[in-house]
Design brief:
The chain folds into two domains: 136 residues, 3-Layer(aba) Sandwich (Rossmann fold), CATH 3.40.50; 156 residues, 3-Layer(aba) Sandwich (Rossmann fold). A five-stranded parallel sheet has the order 7-6-5-8-9. It contains eleven helices and nine strands. The two termini are 15 Å apart. It is of the alpha/beta class and 307 residues long. The chain is 40% helix and 15% strand. It binds N-carbamoyl-L-aspartate. The site of N-carbamoyl-L-aspartate (NCD) has 12 residues, from helix 2 and helix 6.
Length: 307
């Protein structure tokens, strides 16, 4: 199994064995971090962080992961300071940046942009989110988190709650969870369901049983893991429509009390109004633990794909 030079574009590009290998490597990275062992696997190498869309966790955790591996980071977080603002094409930007670095991480509003970048670049490209399509490294870190916190993935009841239509995190994750034999309950407002095509693909490929509902309470009842995402307001044509849904689709502490004692609640973040703030203090809220696992997992991914 060789990862050298491999692009990370969609969770579909990986077999279960390959994901298990990444999880194993992440475990090793986490141990080194805990022991404060200085690593230099990426010494002299450069990662380029190209963010055409806002990001806090993904961008900073890739930068932190690269630096913890002994490498360095270049890139931009504000396209107004780059030649993109002068009208440069994505193709030309990638042809340029690949000359400056060893690995490219890209986030872009257009679906398929990361795949395009990978076709152009000779250096490995990691998709950090392409429009409403895919966010594979988030899924791998989510699988790692669930394994860490629940001891397994197989057989767990996982509720995916929120905007499943535009949430790229959810599209990648539904596939990853099905691959690892979790049971899925999809909880979304009417009109924001996981696309039919994604459901069909998962059911046919993994024989997963999927329950769908727009009722939060009934969707959460049997969940071992409750995974929430915000309404992806920036992808709506009508912002007013997004705000209306936002107000009506919210997990409250009262609802959480009716869930399983051992249930955990995860969120890729940023969260806005979909989780009542008092929930942060409950023992079920694990999203800031989840944030931490982004480091060992991204260290493992960078170290595996580097040329
Ligand atoms: C998500 C994203 O950008 O898709 N955040 C992340 O990467 N952690 C989720 C979101 O924006 O809702």
């Amino acid at each position: 199994m060789s990862f050298k030079g491999k692009d990370v574009i969609s969770i579909r590009d990986f077999s279960k064995e390959e994901i298990e290998k990444i999880l194993e490597e992440a475990e090793k990275m986490e141990t080194s971090l805990a022991k404060n062992i200085e690593l230099n696997y990426l010494k002299g190498k450069i990662l380029a962080n190209l963010f055409f869309e806002p990001s806090t966790r993904t961008r900073l955790s890739f930068a932190s992961a690269m630096q913890k591996l002994g490498g360095s980071v270049i890139g931009f977080e504000d396209i107004t300071s780059t030649s993109v603002a002068k009208g440069e094409s994505l193709i030309d930007t990638i042809k340029t940046v690949e000359k400056y670095c060893d690995v490219i991480v890209i986030r872009h509003p257009r679906e398929g942009s990361a795949r395009l970048a990978a076709e152009i670049s000779e250096k490995p490209v990691i998709n950090a989110g392409d429009g409403a399509n895919q966010h594979p490294t988030q899924t791998i870190l989510d699988l790692y988190t669930i394994k860490k916190l629940k001891g397994r993935i197989k057989g767990l009841n996982v509720a995916l709650v929120g905007d499943l239509k535009y949430g790229r995190v959810m599209k990648s994750l539904a596939y990853g969870l099905a691959m690892f034999e979790a049971n899925l309950t999809l909880v979304s407002p009417v009109g924001l369901e996981l696309p039919e095509q994604t459901i069909k693909e998962i059911v046919e490929k993994f024989d997963t049983e999927i329950i769908q509902t727009d009722n939060i309470l009934s969707g959460l009842k049997n969940a071992d893991v409750i995974y929430v995402c915000r309404i992806q307001k920036e992808r709506f044509e009508d912002v007013y429509e997004a705000e209306k849904v936002q107000k009506s689709f919210r997990i409250t502490s009262q609802m959480l009390e009716k869930t399983k004692e051992e249930a955990i609640i995860l969120h890729a973040l940023p969260k806005t109004v979909e989780i009542e703030p008092s929930i942060d203090k409950t023992k079920k809220a694990k999203y800031f633990d989840q944030v931490y696992y982004g480091i060992p997992v991204r260290m493992a991914i960078i170290n595996l794909v580097r040329p």
